[in-house]
Design goal:
Elements (H helix, E strand, L loop, with lengths): L11 H21 L3 H35 L8 E2 L4 E5 L7 E6 L6 E5 L5 E5 L5 E10 L7 E10 L2 H4 L16 E6 L13 E6 L2 H6 L5 E7 L6 E7 L7 H20 L3 H12 L4 H32 L12 E9 L2 E9 L3 E6 L4 E4 L24 H5 L2 E6 L4 E5 L1 H8 L2 H4 L2 H13 L18 H8 L11 E6 L1
Parallel strand pairs: 1-7
Antiparallel strand pairs: 2-5, 3-6, 4-5, 6-7, 8-9, 9-18, 10-11, 11-12, 12-13, 13-16, 14-15, 14-17, 17-18
Length: 482
């Protein structure tokens, strides 16, 4: 008698295995002389035994695979919100199927299997917190889906922990938390584009965290009558309670002084041209230097006096309460090239950058104070006591052309250059320039388009100053002639 058993709820493969076993049992029962009346009970007993054995082996296989996967020690390292996260691991893919990782979507991650068989969890976590991810997979048809629990934590992004508390408008010498300017200079009679000026200043995160005012300041000017450019940048000392006013007054004073002294200054312009034609002539150099002292050195002194007058007008405070650094430059284009003269006291950086010829010229040296992290300030009386020391703060340069003249406070120079040595390295300036143009895509901060007639460059520059640099959260100010 041929028996075909159809087992309800069984998959086709399982049914085929059982029926094959039944046929073999029928044959065996005939050969063994099993009575007909006992064949059906005997057959049902055998089927149950085989089925239980089959399920047991399948379960043992699942348990073996689960144990094998547990022994892999799969762990997910902690991550940070909005920062790139990636972890890969291996699984015995030939033994399992339908692999998923549940819980990744809610935190903004993606789980995939790579071509090389590796599994990859990647993306930028969108939420902070402790999470339980469930690695689920099948080992055999009919067996329950296996699960491995993998905990993972994502920390808040440090950037998101900073507060932005507006500055109290009722404080003395209130200053806006940010400032920006752009000067478009029209082409001259020759039709050639003239360089434009852009500047921006923004309060640093450390000040925003406490609702304190911006201490930095800048001043920029293009004198239409004389075609001179004037750029100034100042960094008020964080330890001086009214330094925000000191930096403002210093920048305003030097811009006004230089603008007045450069108006119809035929003698200075003539001395520059004479010197440019014979730079080895000491007398001609001395004559230019004399004018630079009158304009640049006395401009710095005017700034010092202006800050001092503000302090004296407020009898309750001292000059050091208005402490500020100061760097400024005057520039003009001639037929022989560009003439640039400058003054620098304090930290930060001021540089002529020439991408075409791959050169940089630093217009001074950052000051270092008595202790690490200190600097010197315009408001220090000793700055002007030693004429020889003052002369070292003055610079003069003639260059055929340049890509940009940069003036920046240490809120920009410190994270970008890190050391004074790097300030003299062309490649570091090239990297800085590339970052300025490209921006910071990982932070969704665009670059600055330094092209002719781009008034949007001031908004671009202000946004660029919000770049992230761990440990560098000072006010940031930069002025660019380009």
């Amino acid at each position: 008698m041929k028996r075909e058993h159809r087992l309800s709820g069984r998959r086709p493969g399982e049914v085929a295995r059982v029926n094959e076993a039944v046929r073999k049992l029928d044959k065996a029962m005939e050969l063994s002389g099993v009575p007909e009346r006992d064949k059906q009970p005997f057959l049902e007993w055998v089927i149950k035994e085989l089925w239980d054995k089959f399920k047991e082996e399948r379960m043992e296989k699942r348990l073996r695979i689960e144990n094998e996967i547990r022994q892999l020690g799969i762990r997910f390292p902690n991550g940070t919100v909005n920062e790139d996260y990636s972890v890969s691991f291996s699984l015995p893919s030939e033994k399992i199927s339908n692999v998923t990782l549940e819980g990744v979507e809610e935190i903004g991650l993606l789980f995939t299997q790579e071509e090389n068989g590796q599994y990859l969890l990647m993306g930028r976590p969108s939420k902070a917190g402790d999470y339980i991810l469930r690695l689920r997979y099948d080992t055999s048809v009919g067996e329950p889906t296996s699960e491995l629990i993998i905990p993972v934590a994502f920390n808040p992004n440090p950037r998101d922990l900073w507060r932005d508390i507006p500055t109290d408008r009722n404080i003395p010498y209130y200053k806006e938390d940010s400032e920006l300017d752009y000067i478009k200079v029209e082409s001259g009679p020759d039709g050639l584009p003239k360089k434009d000026v852009v500047a921006a200043s923004r309060r640093g995160r450390s000040h925003a965290q406490e609702g304190k005012a911006r201490d930095d300041h800048y001043g920029i000017c293009h004198c239409k009558d004389s075609d001179w450019y004037i750029l100034a940048v100042a960094d008020g000392a964080g330890s001086a309670k009214y330094s925000r006013k000191g930096s403002e007054v210093a920048c305003g004073a030097v811009v006004e002084h230089c603008r007045n002294r450069l108006l119809d200054n035929v003698a200075f312009e003539s001395a520059i041209s004479e010197y440019a034609s014979d730079r080895e002539n000491k007398e001609k150099r001395t004559e230019v230097t004399r004018h630079i002292i009158e304009i640049i050195y006395k401009g710095a002194m005017k700034a010092h006096e202006a800050v001092k007058n503000v302090a004296q007008a407020n009898g309750e405070v001292k000059l050091k309460d208005f402490a500020t650094t100061l760097m400024f430059a005057i520039c003009k284009r001639y037929d022989f090239g560009w003439f640039i003269a400058s003054f620098w006291v304090g930290d930060g950086a001021m540089c002529i950058f020439d991408e075409k010829n791959k050169t940089v010229k630093l217009l001074g040296t950052p000051d270092e104070g008595e202790y690490s992290g200190q600097t010197r300030f315009l408001t220090m009386p000793e700055i002007f006591r030693d004429p020889e020391a003052v002369s070292k703060r003055l610079r003069m340069a003639i260059v055929p052309d340049f890509t940009a003249l940069f003036l920046m406070t240490d809120g920009v120079s410190d994270p970008m250059f890190e050391t004074e040595k790097n300030l003299n390295d062309y490649h570091k300036w090239e990297e800085f320039y590339e970052k300025l143009i490209a921006g910071f895509p990982e932070d969704e901060i665009g670059g600055v388009v330094l092209s002719d007639d781009n008034e949007e460059s001031k908004e671009q520059l202000l946004r660029w100053l919000d770049f992230w640099s761990p440990g560098n959260h000072d006010d940031r100010t930069i002025a660019i002639l380009y």
